[in-house]
Amino acid sequence: MNILENSYRLINKYIQHSKTPKSYGTADMLYMSEVHMIEVIGSYEGITTTKLAAALGITKGAVSQTVSKLEKKDMINKQPSTERTNEVFIYLSDKGRVVFENHRSMHSDMLNDINKLFDAMSEEGKQTIIEMINTIDSFLDGIGGSQNEI
Question: What is the pTM of this model?
Answer without folding.
Answer: 0.74
